[in-house]
Amino acid sequence: MPIPSRIWEFVVTSIVIILAPGPTVLFIIARAIAWGRKAAVFTVVGGILGSFILSAVVAVGLGPLLQKSSLAYTSFTLGSIHFVIATCMPPQ
User: Are the beta carbons of 15 and 9 closer than 8 angstroms?
Assistant: First the structure.
């Protein structure tokens, strides 16, 4: 809980943190500038699908398995990298 005498500092800092774009938004903006709208849309879709898959993996209880098994973690990581490259690369 913020100290009452410093509430305005807390409010201003909170607003700045909330409004600042995160790394995903900055990545999407950079892709849009460099490659255009279509690539940015693919990047958004890839980010959403990646977040959904990670959430699903954790929801079904595979988080501890990925944490303990080096092979499972490496396989998941390499599969994720392949998925991101396949969905985010603009068609040539």
Answer: no
* Residues 9-30: b if buried by 16+ CB within 10 A, e if exposed: eeeeeeeeeeeeeeeeeebbee
* Residues 60-88 pLDDT 10s: 988 888 889 999 889 988 988 887 787 76
Q: How far is 32 from 43, CA to CA, in rounded Å?
A: 9
Q: How far apart are CA 20 and CA 32, in angstroms?
A: 18
Amino acid identity of residue 22, one-letter, is G
**What pTM does this model have?**
0.58
CB atoms within 10 A of CB 57: 15
| Structural domain spans, the chain | 20-88
